[in-house]
Amino acid sequence: MRRGLFIVAGVAALSLVPVAYALLGQHGVKTTRLYERYPAAASAGGTKYFAWSQNSRAHPSHSDAYLKRGSQPRVKLNTKGFGYLGGIDPPMVAYQQVVRGNSNIKLYNADTHIRSNPPSGVNTSAWEWEPSISGEWLLYGRQSNSSSNQRVILRNLPTGIETILDESFSFREPGQVNGDYAVWIRCDASCDVVRRQISSETNTVLEEPSATTYQYGAGVTSTGIVYTARGGKACGNAKIVRYFGVSDPAGGTVVADLPNHQDIDNGYVRENADGSVDFFYNRYLCNDDSVADIYRIHDPHPGP
Questions:
Q1: In 125-264, where does DSSP find H-type helix?
Q2: Which of 65, 81, 121, 270 would bridge 99 by S-S if both were Cys, CB 3.0 to 4.6 A apart?
Q3: Domains in the chain, ordered, with CATH?
Q4: Residue pLDDT, tens place only, 246-295
Q5: Is the peptide bond before 45 cis (omega within 30 degrees of 0)?
Q6: pTM higher than 0.85, yes or no?
Q7: Do the Cβ atoms of 83 and 97 come closer than 8 Å?
Q8: What is the rounded distance in angstroms from the CA atom of residue 275 to the CA atom of residue 255?
């Protein structure tokens, strides 16, 4: 089942780790034999929210979306069809629901347990996918059913005003919106991550060490710090790179290095009350596409 175009990307050792910076540990969050992907996480009032998508042993080709709020039992978000995350801005969760080949964005209120549609105009007959929500902003993708035209759209929910951040017949993937910032992935000759400051309408393409570098699976903090996977055209040996932290050079700082022959798909940032950041991502084996696990790194002092 198509969620959106899937990019297979890997990495060569394209960036040097600063001498004074120790790589961060990678901690398993969902590491069963199921296909666990598309993490989203948030924290509010001491309560942690975590959402993800997974299949089951009985139905390995079917994916559902789930939310875990604190110690409460998990909630299945999609009421029918296939379910994929998504983003969280407590108590709201945005997710994708695919029914009979039609993909739409849905919202779930964890306080009221009410599922709803976003405002009119978000869902169309086209393929809407990978939503992220923060305050009044909804970031999502839309692909035409009649062509490969893809858009990354930022919508102001109260006003209904939409801004097309990117549009192409090449691959475009929405990432995360958080506060005054949004990120997305654009793939032409290679894949780049673009950061948008919403208030100034300024786009910044993250600087890379080579024109053939691939960057993907990005998340962003509310202050604009970006975490992204870095790789090459082939799968394997991916790294996680941080940009715009207090000590980061223009080309970013490598903060984690995956084991050989593993790579990353989607990533998502959670900011914690103590100023630390957790970056969640799903990790998969290059030679076995039947298993994917969710991991996180904990960055105690990323910067302002």
A1: none
A2: 81
A3: 26-299 (2.130.10.150)
A4: 999 999 999 999 999 999 999 999 999 999 999 999 999 999 878 899 99
A5: no
A6: yes
A7: yes
A8: 17
